[in-house]
Each structure stands twice: as structure tokens, then as C-alpha cells.
Design brief:
The protein has about 400 residues and is of the alpha/beta class. About 50% of the residues lie in helices and about 10% in strands. The structure holds nicotinamide-adenine-dinucleotide.
Length: about 400
């Protein structure tokens, strides 16, 4: 099968991610089978797609005919067997529970045609394990979209231990066929099934660093966010934690503490806020107040003069070199591409830190590691030797 021969896609789960993936695929002209466990969940997904397209029509970015054509390509299902019967590709976007995903892959292997590729939109979980739940591990792959699908350009294509190169190429080609409301989607290959893949992995040391500084009372979140925003970032790191949900951050830290290092164990302040139901935007209060869901007020005049944004860039570069060392990707530029298109900054960490000189970046990481007693921040051999190639 070639990427352009994919005519029918089945999306499993019509929630936040599933409905967005269905929308972008239907816009690109594919037939989309949208499956969820209950009729009301599928209907809600279909309604969200309709509302999103109507907004585009009202902004004159889409014609009414295009909207009707797109909606006609979306077919709701609540019987898995029927949703998969004539599909070329499944993208699973069910909740992030491994057992649930394994059961879906087992069933999909039985019901989907032999040629079909089975993909997961998991944020973290093992593609290799999902492949092992099937008799076609060569056709099992990660296709990781970001939230919201219609605005974020990055899509990570993740190779499990037994994923065939042909499967990687078909999925890469498929993503190149897709466009969201901002532009053409940007696929990035992830050659190894590793915790956090590329984008979320580069966020891991930032989360750890910010959590530790707050735990020790070394920073005022508002002052740090004001400082980061003074460099043009739309949100500071603490507001991002609230925005994503402190519960989601807590689970992410727990996952990294199991898979990367116990140093990621969630900090007390975060556990306390989550236990008190202060989850951030979704509950109206987290690190900051979110009155009626509106963004918190950050007084930009309070920017912390001692907080150095380059600290977090250096930690990201160091994390990126771990991915280079373990063969998750061979190109620093691919890591920058993932960070730029998954987030929204103009440059990735390697491009930003290059002018500092890699030995200075390594020295900065070592200093942070020693200051906070966190080994994870120690510079890698690659960074110390400066074995990084970037234009
Ligand atoms: N939300 C994000 O920011 C984000 C970003 C990237 C990846 N992801 C990943 O995408 C996946 C889906 O996340 P989401 O945020 O869309 O979740 P969600 O809770 O919004 O949607 C999940 C959907 O799956 C349905 N579902 C439950 N059990 C099912 C089953 N047995 N079979 C099929 N569908 C079932 C639910 O009814 C729901 O509609 C997860 O793996 C998540 O880690 C999420």
C-alpha cells in the first residue's frame, strides 16, 4: 500500500483527539469511520466537527459545499467490527490506559483487513507492546497528533521494535497529505519507542526543573512566567502546567519516574494541589486563579530578574542529546523541528543555544544539576564533547 492509496481511515474514540483526527482526515478527502463505545459519544464527536467547520465557513476559510462534503465523509459507528471492516488504517485515540489499548489492538487485528495499518495516538505508551497484541507487529505504529489537532502542526511517527520501514513511510506520506487550519502538517520520525517520544520528552526536564524550584520556594511562579513572556512566549511554564492540568502533569511525572528516573517523582506541592482538586484551568484554580476559565492575570512588570530562560533551553538541549545518543533520531534539526511545530516558538533549543557554545551549555547543565542535586540534569558525553551538528 502507498500513502496515497489510503482511502478509508477508522478512528477509535471520538473524544478530544479522535474528533480532531477525524476532521483533518475527512477534510483531506478520506472516508472516515468514527467509532466510540456509545452513540452519544460518537454523536458528540460529530457535532464538535460540524461546529469547528461551521466556524471556518463563517470566517470564509471554507465553503459551505466543502463543509457538507467533509461531513458526508464521516461515518459514525458503535460496533467495532463494522467500523474496521473495510479500513486501510486505524488510528486509536481511546483513553490512555494500556490494558484498554491492548484489547483494542487485539480486536482490530481480528476485524481489520490484513493490509490495514494499526496506529495509536498514545502520548507515551509502548507501541512495541501494542504490536505484540497483534499478529501484524510490522504494521503497528504510533501516529501522535497534538492537541488541538486543527491548530498544532507536529505529528510524531513512532517506530515500535517490530514496525516495518514501509509502515513508517506510508504513515509519513499520509501526514504529508494533511492540512489543518494553520497549514501543512509536519511529520517527524521517532525511530525508537521511548518515553515521551520527542516533544514530550524535551518537556520533561523543564517540568522537573520548574517543579523543584517551586518546591524549594526559590521562585514566584508569576515572576517566572512574566520573565518568560517578556521573551515573546505566549505562556510561561507555570501557566502551561495549569493549562494542561496539574493532574495530567502529576501522571506524566509519575510515568517518567517509573520509566526514566525516580528523580521525576511528583513534588509535594503538586500532590497537595491535585488532592485539593486545584487542577488548574479546568477547575478554576491551580497555581494561579482562572476566573470562569479566563487566563490568569500575570503582571509583566514583576518579571524575575534572576530567572534565566537559557537555563531551561540548556536542559532541553541536554535532553535532546540523550535522544541522539539512544538513536531516537539522528538529527538535532529534527528535534528542533518537533519542538517548533509542537509548541509554537520560532526556534528549537539547539538553534537557540548554539551561539552559547556547547561546552558552556554543558557547564550550565552541570551547575544546575549540582545546585539542585538532580543527576538527571548532568550533561551527556555528547554535549560535553560538543558532538552536535546543526546548521
Ligand atoms: N488530550 C491531549 O492533549 C492528547 C494529546 C496527544 C495525545 N493524546 C492521547 O490521545 C488519546 C485520547 O485522548 P483524548 O484526550 O482524546 O481522550 P478523551 O477522553 O477526550 O477521549 C477518549 C474517547 O475514547 C472513548 N472510549 C472509551 N473507551 C473506549 C473503548 N474501549 N474503545 C473506543 N473508545 C473508547 C471515550 O468514550 C472518549 O470519547 C490518549 O491516548 C491520549 O494520551 C491526548
Amino acid at each position: 500500500m502507498k500513502a496515497e492509496e489510503i482511502g478509508t481511515i477508522t478512528i477509535i474514540g471520538a473524544g478530544d483527539m479522535g474528533h480532531g483526527i477525524a476532521e483533518i482526515c475527512a477534510l483531506a478527502g478520506m472516508q472516515v469511520n468514527l467509532y466510540d463505545v456509545q452513540q452519544e459519544f460518537v454523536s458528540r464527536g460529530v457535532r464538535r466537527i460540524q461546529q469547528s467547520l461551521e466556524k471556518q465557513v463563517s470566517k470564509q476559510k471554507l465553503t459551505a459545499t466543502e463543509m457538507v462534503g467533509t461531513m458526508n465523509r464521516i461515518h459514525p459507528f458503535t460496533v467495532l467490527q463494522e467500523a474496521l471492516a473495510h479500513t486501510d488504517l486505524m488510528i486509536e485515540a481511546a483513553p490512555e490506559i494500556l490494558d484498554l489499548k491492548l484489547r483494542i489492538f487485539e480486536a482490530a487485528d481480528v476485524h481489520a483487513p490484513r493490509h490495514a495499518i494499526l496506529a495509536s495516538n498514545t502520548s507515551n505508551m509502548s507501541i512495541t507492546q501494542m504490536g505484540a497484541a497483534t499478529q501484524r507487529a510490522d504494521k503497528v505504529v504510533g501516529i501522535h497528533f497534538f492537541n488541538p489537532v486543527m491548530l498544532m502542526l507536529l505529528v510524531e511517527i513512532i517506530r515500535g521494535e517490530n514496525t516495518a520501514e514501509a509502515t513508517m513511510q506510508i504513515c509519513y506520506g499520509l501526514i504529508q497529505r494533511l492540512k489543518n487550519f494553520r497549514g501543512a502538517m509536519v511529520p517527524v520520525r521517532v525511530e525508537k519507542d521511548t518515553p515521551g517520544f520527542i516533544y514530550n520528552r524535551l518537556g520533561a526536564p523543564i517540568g522537573l526543573y520548574m517543579a523543584e524550584l517551586y518546591e524549594r520556594g526559590l521562585v514566584d511562579p508569576e515572576a517566572v512566567d512574566a520573565c518568560v513572556r517578556s521573551f515573546g512566549a505566549p505562556m510561561g511554564p507555570y501557566e502551561i502546567m495549569d493549562f494542561t492540568g496539574l493532574d495530567v502533569n502529576l501522571h506524566g511525572n509519575e510515568y517518567f519516574s517509573r520509566t526514566l528516573s525516580p528523580e521525576f517523582t511528583p513534588r509535594t506541592w503538586m500532590k497537595k494541589l491535585v488532592a485539593a482538586g486545584q487542577l488548574g484551568k479546568k477547575s478554576g484554580k491551580g497555581i494561579f486563579d482562572w476566573p470562569q476559565g479566563a487566563r490568569p492575570t500575570i503582571d509583566l512588570s514583576k518579571a524575575d530578574p534572576h530567572f534565566d530562560v537559557m537555563d531551561i533551553i540548556c536542559l532541553q538541549v541536554n535532553e535532546g542529546t540523550k535522544l541522539l545518543e539512544s538513536g531516537v533520531t539522528s538529527q538535532a534539526a529534527e528535534i528542533d523541528k518537533a519542538v517548533v511545530n509542537g509548541g509554537g516558538g520560532a526556534f528549537g533549543p539547539f538553534a537557540l543555544a548554539k551561539a552559547m557554545g556547547w561546552h558552556n551549555v554543558a557547564a550550565r547543565c552541570e551547575d544546575i544539576a549540582n545546585r539542585l542535586g538532580i543527576q538527571w540534569f548532568m550533561p551527556t558525553a555528547t554535549l560535553k564533547k560538543g558532538e552536535i551538528h546543526i546548521e
